[in-house]
Structures are given as structure tokens and as C-alpha cells.
Amino acid sequence: MKLRELVERFFLYQTTKNIDSIFIKGIAIDSRKVGNGDLFFCITGFTVDGHDFAKQAEANGACAIVAEKPVDVTIPVIIVNNSSRALSIAANTFFHNPTNKLQLIGVTGTNGKTSVTYLLEEIFQQSKKKTGLIGTIQMKIGDTSYNVKNTTPEALYLQKSFRQMVEENVETVMMEVSSHALDLGRVYGCDFDIAIFTNLSQDHLDYHENMGDYLHAKSLLFSQLGNRYDLTSPKFAIVNKDDSNAEFIIKSTAQHVITYGIDSEADITATNIELNANGSSFTICTSDGNMDITSRLMGKFSVYNMLAATAAAICSGVSLRDIKSALELTTGVKGRFEPVATGQPYGVIVDYAHTPDSLENVLTTIRSFSNGNVYVVVGCGGDRDRSKRPLMAQVAVNYADLALFTSDNPRSEDPDQIINDMINGMDKTNYEVIVDRKEAINRSIRLAKENDIVLIAGKGHETYQIIGNEVHDFNDKKVAEDAIIQKIGKG
Ligand SMILES: CC(=O)N[C@H]1[C@@H](OP(=O)(O)OP(=O)(O)OC[C@H]2O[C@@H](n3ccc(=O)[nH]c3=O)[C@H](O)[C@@H]2O)O[C@H](CO)[C@@H](O)[C@@H]1O[C@H](C)C(=O)N[C@@H](C)C(=O)N[C@H](CCC(=O)O)C(=O)O
Ligand SMILES: Nc1ncnc2c1ncn2[C@@H]1O[C@H](COP(=O)(O)OP(=O)(O)OP(=O)(O)O)[C@@H](O)[C@H]1O
Ligand SMILES: N[C@H](CCC[C@H](N)C(=O)O)C(=O)O
Ligand SMILES: [Mg+2]
């Protein structure tokens, strides 16, 4: 592509040399991955400053540089106000605005994003659409999976993925949109057709200054949802009316708003809800008619997720019959309320709850059907929101008979200190501290008797434990299975 054509989209910029004869072969943001003829963007990161790598990018074959300040290279430099924003514009342009050719559904909120995107995938596949999915666990095109580093990837990888989806004839894409991505502009230029707000509760206060900033970041998905009414392709904001921030989100968009809820009046609601140890049954009420659902998904929070997915599917013209089939067929997502069943007489559940709210939801659900003791194995991530630590620990001791506090990706922090933060000020004593996660899981399985339930929370689908800079293999489900088998062996 002609560099001039791409750069003109920046609107305000300065060039240090004439760029008219330059054609770029690609875009790069990592100097170590620059190819011959690439345009390199210097991004100021949280760890290092990409401007310091301009020379390396040149040495690796970059034909020009985009930067926020002068850099010491001989190739042309395009100076912009904000390299990250310029990168989003460039990536959209270079990959020919792929989201204009896709139906794009963005899901944001503290909890439930992954769960809702997977429900949507099943619903759209049921209605015979080719789907794409981007989120915490993986990126998928149809049934092919790709690894991801972030829940919502950097603009360059995002637009490249969308392009691939267009080329592979994907029709509908569901993606998780994290507050980090919204704040850092990773999704600038994405043409969302539907935006879903699941809920807001405390998390990520390491990154956002306070809950107001966190909410504001979430609301950007809704203010970014088209800027005018388009009668031929309307846009929809789907909002959980039971969340106390619903009105703020609703006011952030100029597009159609569809609400869902259980306790408040909403466009799409659920009644006759029955929750039990095998799943849930309820009636979804919509203006198009009602449908009775019997699902294997557990807990009231899952009913919310199913309502959110139903609302988006209805806005997309999917029939109630296809929605019902998908909701009744789904068995849930890896690491989300996933049972570990190795023939033992007690329940073991692996779940990704890593916020006070999600832990409370999951423990309340377990409490509602358990008639034995409830054990929870839980830790808090290092280099993440410290203020959620005592809240999560308090939830654990409030709802479980015994909490086993342990490590969950301590990263650069001291694991003992993280647990100290958790138990600091605790007014209950029904907990034990076992820093080694494998030991903690083993202990919980040894304690469990018939009818008891063990919840192993926080890591869900993760297959690693990050200690310092090292990533160790660690899989909650596998460790639990081994512990159960060992216990059975010992009789
Ligand atoms: C805080 C944050 O968001 N960090 C992201 C950020 O990293 P960073 O700012 O530290 O980058 P950096 O290492 O300083 O590098 C700056 C620039 O220099 C470049 N560089 C660097 C070294 C070099 O030799 N040459 C070079 O060119 C880098 O490619 C980059 O362009 O840019 C990276 C590349 O895009 C991201 O992978 C990284 O996400 C890290 C892994 C992360 O943990 N992010 C979390 C906080 C996050 O974003 N989470 C949300 C969701 C959480 C949830 O709710 O589940 C997510 O969407 O994943
Ligand atoms: N609607 C919901 N409300 C509250 N808690 C939920 C909801 N849905 C799921 N959960 C709980 O939150 C955990 C994480 O769910 P999920 O992975 O769907 O959320 P997420 O928003 O994608 O999280 P992340 O920000 O880490 O990507 C689940 O394992 C479950 O414990
Ligand atoms: N994607 C989220 C989830 C982390 C889950 C938990 N296992 C942890 O490491 O804190 C984050 O990075 O904050
Ligand atoms: Mg997720």
C-alpha cells in the first residue's frame, strides 16, 4: 500500500522527509518482529518506550517510522500526536476496514464477557452463520482456534484477525471488549453493530483510578456505537437493567437500547426461574413471544448471560427456535463452573471467579443446592487490583465452611504478602493459608466427604501459574483429578 494513502488518514501529522515514493508491505509495533518494508509505530508502553527501538526497527528493514517525537533514524519519520490512535487508523486502513463487512458484537462488563460470547457463538452457529470469536480463552474462526495474549488484542492484531475472518467468509463476530482495550484505544475504528453491557463491580483498580473511571472506560463501547441512525443497518445497545450503572451506559449511546433483566422492568426478562444442581429452567419473555428454557448452566448469573445473548440474537433476526435450541444444548465454557467428575461422591467445581462479585455469585449458587460442607480454594493475582483482595477473602469465608487461601499468579509480588493482604482485618477464622496451590487443592480434596462441594476458583481455563517472570504449567482441573484419584486409591 502507498504510505501517503495511509498517512493521509491521520489528518494531522508532519513528515521529516518526502514519503511519496514509499510503499509499505506491512505494519509493525515490535521492533524485533519488523520485516522488510514495514511501517514501524513507536508506542509508549507501560514497561518500555517504543521510541527507543526505532533504530532497531530501521536495522530490521522498516521503511518509515510513526512516532510522537523525533527519533534518530535515516528513514522518514511521520510525527503524530498519539501513535496508538494513529496505529488504529492505520491498521483499519491497511486491512481495508474489515469490520464494515462483518456483523460485530462487542461484549463488555466486569463478569460474563467470555460466557456471553460463547453463548452467542452457539446461537449463531445454530442459525447456520459462520462465526468468529475473540476473547480471553482464544480467537476462533469457525472451529479453528488461535492463541491470544490479551482478552482484547492490540489494534494491529485485531484488524489483521478481522481481515482473516472476512477472507474466510465469517458473517458474525462476537468479541470481548475489556476496559483496558477501550481505554487504550485498541478498538478505535471498529464498526460495532451490537454492544452488550453485562455488569460492573470491583476489579482492575490497579489500572483504573477509581470505579468512576472504570465505568467511563466501559461506556466508551456505547459512545463508539455508530454516530448516526442508519435505518438500513441499525445498531443496538443491550444493557442489563438490573445493574446499578445501567442508566449511565444507556445515556452513553445514541443508538437503540434494548434492556434485559430479572428484577427490574426490561424489554427481555426471565420469569419462573428455578435453579438446581442440574442447571436452570426459566421462561424468557420478549415482545416476539415467550420461550421456556431448560439449561444445564447453573446459577442466576447464567440466566443473566443467557438473557444478554438472547437479546443480541433477537436484534440480529435469529429465530426464537434457534435461540432456544442453542441455550438448551450448551454445556458451558471451559473453566466456567466446570465440574471435575472422576466418580467421587463429593462435588468439585473449577471456576474463573476472580472478583468479589463473581466469587459471591458462584458460592451462593453452590450453597443453594449443597447439603454438605463447602470448601473454596482461592487466591488473588499479583500485580493486579490490591483492594479486591480482602473483599474476595471476606466473600470466601462468608459463604464457605472453610476457605483455603493460596496463590493465583503472584507474578512479581511475594505470594505470602498477597495472602496477608487478603486476610488483613478478617473477622472470621474459618480459613487456612497454604501458599502452594497444588498443596491447597490436595488438602481440599482430602477434606471433602460425601455431599460436600469443593470450589477451585480464579484460574478456570488457565494452564499456568506465573511466579516472578516464570510461567509454570498448572491446571486446576488436572491437579484436582490427580488428587481425587490418589484419594480413591488410598480408599
Ligand atoms: C498494561 C497493558 O495493557 N499492557 C499491554 C501493553 O504492554 P506494555 O505497555 O507493557 O508494552 P511495552 O513492553 O512497554 O512495550 C511498548 C512498545 O514497545 C515495543 N517494543 C518493546 C520491546 C522491544 O524490544 N521492541 C519494541 O518495539 C512493544 O512492542 C510495544 O509496542 O501492550 C502489550 C502489547 O500490545 C500488551 O500485550 C500488554 O498487555 C499485558 C500483557 C497485560 O497484562 N495487559 C492486561 C492488563 C490487559 O490488557 N488485560 C485486559 C483484560 C483483563 C480482563 O478483564 O480479563 C485485556 O484485554 O487483556
Ligand atoms: N453475568 C455474570 N455475573 C456475575 N458473575 C458471573 C457472570 N457470568 C459469569 N460469572 C462469574 O465470573 C467468572 C468469569 O466469567 P467470564 O469468564 O464469562 O467473565 P469475563 O467477563 O470474561 O472475565 P475476564 O474479565 O477475566 O475476561 C465465571 O467463572 C463466573 O464465576
Ligand atoms: N484477565 C484477568 C484475569 C486474571 C485471573 C487471575 N487468574 C489472575 O491472574 O489474577 C487479569 O489478568 O486480571
Ligand atoms: Mg473473559
UniProtKB/TrEMBL annotation:
It comes from the Bacteria. Residues 107-313 form the Mur ligase central domain. This is UDP-N-acetylmuramoyl-L-alanyl-D-glutamate--2,6-diaminopimelate ligase. GO terms for molecular function: UDP-N-acetylmuramoylalanyl-D-glutamate-2,6-diaminopimelate ligase activity. It catalyses: UDP-N-acetyl-alpha-D-muramoyl-L-alanyl-D-glutamate + meso-2,6-diaminopimelate + ATP = UDP-N-acetyl-alpha-D-muramoyl-L-alanyl-gamma-D-glutamyl-meso-2,6-diaminopimelate + ADP + phosphate + H(+). Residues 335-460 form the Mur ligase C-terminal domain. Pathway: Cell wall biogenesis; peptidoglycan biosynthesis. Its cofactor is Mg(2+). ATP binds at residues 109-115. It is found in: Cytoplasm. A motif (Meso-diaminopimelate recognition motif) lies at residues 408-411. Belongs to the MurCDEF family. MurE subfamily. The lineage of its organism: Bacteria, Bacillati, Bacillota, Bacilli, Bacillales. The gene is murE. PANTHER family: MUR LIGASE FAMILY MEMBER, UDP-N-ACETYLMURAMOYL-L-ALANYL-D-GLUTAMATE--2,6-DIAMINOPIMELATE LIGASE MURE HOMOLOG, CHLOROPLASTIC. Catalyzes the addition of meso-diaminopimelic acid to the nucleotide precursor UDP-N-acetylmuramoyl-L-alanyl-D-glutamate (UMAG) in the biosynthesis of bacterial cell-wall peptidoglycan. Its EC number is 6.3.2.13. It comes from Aquibacillus albus. InterPro entries: Mur-like_cat_sf (IPR036565), Mur_ligase_C (IPR004101), Mur_ligase_C_dom_sf (IPR036615), Mur_ligase_cen (IPR013221), Mur_ligase_N (IPR000713), MurE/MurF_N (IPR035911), UDP-N-AcMur-Glu-dNH2Pim_ligase (IPR005761). Carboxylation is probably crucial for Mg(2+) binding and, consequently, for the gamma-phosphate positioning of ATP. The modification N6-carboxylysine is found at residue 218. Meso-2,6-diaminopimelate binds at residues 384, 408-411, 458, 462. UDP-N-acetyl-alpha-D-muramoyl-L-alanyl-D-glutamate binds at residues 31, 150-152, 178, 186. The keyword Ligase applies. Keywords: ATP-binding, Cell cycle, Cell division, Cell shape, Cell wall biogenesis/degradation, Cytoplasm, Ligase, Magnesium, Nucleotide-binding, Peptidoglycan synthesis.
